[in-house]
Amino acid sequence: VIQSVTARAVLDSRGNPTVETDVLLADGSLGRAAVPSGASTGAREAVELRDGDPGRWHGKGVDRAVGHVSGEIASVAVGRDADDQAGLDAVLAALDGTADKSRLGANALLGVSLATAKAAAAAHRLPLHRYLGGVDARLLPLPMMNIVNGGAHADNPLDFQEFMIAPVGAQTFAEAVRMGSEVFHTLRRDLRAAGHATGVGDEGGFAPALRTAREALDFVVRAIERTGYRPGEDIGLVMDPASSEFFRDGVYVYAGEGVRRTPSEHAAHLTELIDAYPVVSVEDPMAEDDLDGWRELTARVGDRCQLTGDDVFCTNEKLLREGIRTGVGNSVLVKVNQIGTLTEALATVATAHRAGWTVVMSHRSGETEDTTIADLAVATGCGQIKTGSLSRSDRTAKYNQLIRIEEELGESARYAGGAVLRRP
Ligand code: PGA
Ligand code: ZN
User: Fold this and answer.
1) Start and end of every Enolase N-terminal domain (predicted)?
2) What's the confidence (pLDDT) of residue 423?
3) Is residue 203 flagged as an active site residue?
4) Which pLDDT band holds residue 424 (cuts at 50, 70, 90)?
């Protein structure tokens, strides 16, 4: 039984305030969750409530959201059974009363939702992945490690937001992390040798002053080879262009590269990259408002490349159902704060799996030391996680948690590897 619900403002990885919530049960079990925050957010995401007072935190304060947790939300949550996650989440959504959670804020609701799950797990003396996923939860995800940052996550001219490596040929999750780290350090040396800066962007990847996707992909492929791995067989490439960010008036405006591409030209460009490099997955290849483009690209390459919807679905089960029905991609990114409660995020995962779609559990560009998504990846058995680079503790915390989970599962642990990308 929930005894108290409290919240505070803490710092996220960009140094902005975010909501951290504690749920305390009558038996003394504590659950704590800190809410992440995006920079290239989808238009249909649940609303992150910010104070908007320019005199404090440059308008980014979360005092109102914190107040909602300890006020209205606590008053309905206290006394409830923490094991009834779905019941609590329904009450939270109803209390907010809006479709986009804009009254109380998704950042207020999500902290309570996740902290309650963690408190309940603690009360059962179970790790979170086991509490939520049961004894069958033993699939460690294929990590998509973001080693070159661009777009809204860095100040360089690179138009595409993320270039990732996925150790498809590793035997264990711990080995995948080692392979990723080795490539990351080779890439640092290569970039430095080529005269590039080796500072990192929001997700811990390098942010060199490159202009084109090909330049970035060439650096990554070379780093994989020079480390001693085979591009494709051992390590696949993943991109997140975050295309909504540079889609203006029906045209994809590549500011860094200095070209404009129509939706068909943009899709053709992506198809060339997918065919020229060992690209196994592309997230948000097309903009959230370019559904025709999405369908065109899916028809073109959907049989040989995972196409993951982030901005276009916003972890929203309704939007996902529509996308499944109309052929928009073949995979969904799941970010719990895009929808605001754990139950709704899990429903989105279940809907994707029923349709034979793949699911990628994901962080946000603004993160904290909270590692809940690592457990969610294992609990749902989704087999894929995207949680940034091999540097910055806000990113490595999730990898480290998965290393612990793999160790704890022992012999029964299985690593998803590249097989998870193949659709039936
Ligand atoms: P965001 O970016 O967290 O800044 O929205 C991550 C992504 O686009 O996947
Ligand atoms: Zn994305």
Assistant:
1) 2-132
2) 60
3) yes
4) very low
Read off the pLDDT of residues 82-114 as tens digits, 9 standing for 90 and up.
999 999 999 999 999 999 999 999 999 999 999
- Could you tell me what percent of the chain has a pLDDT over 90? 99
For the beta carbon of residue 414, count every other beta carbon within 10 angstroms: 16
Whole-number Cα distances in Å, 112 to 71, 256, 349: 12, 41, 20
The whole-angstrom distance between residue 221's C-alpha and the CA centroid of its chain comes to 23
User: DSSP string spanning 344-395?
Assistant: HHHHHHHHHHHTT-EEEEE--SB--S--HHHHHHHHHT--EEE---SSSHHH
pLDDT tens string 25-53: 999 999 999 999 999 999 999 999 999 99
Crossing angle for the helix pair 173-193 and 213-227, to the nearest 10 degrees: 120
Instruction: Say how many Å lie between the CA of residue 240 and the centre of ligand 1.
Output: 9
Atom of ligand 1 nearest to the CA of 386: 9
Q: Classify residue 246 by its DSSP letter.
A: G
- Would you say the CB of residue 363 lies under 6 angstroms from ligand 1? no
Range with lowest mean pLDDT among 153-162, 183-192, 294-303, 415-424: 415-424
Distance (Å, rounded) from C-alpha 277 to C-alpha 121? 43
User: How far is residue 379's CA from residue 346's CA, in Å, rounded to a whole number?
Assistant: 10
Q: What is the ipTM of this complex?
A: 0.98
Ligand nearest to the CA of 48: 1
Which residue matches tokens 């392979």? Answer: 179
C-alpha span between 208 and 69 (Å, rounded): 41
CA 295 to chain CA centroid, Å, is 23
Q: Which of 48, 182, 203, 257 is catalytic?
A: 203
Q: What's the chain's average pLDDT?
A: 98
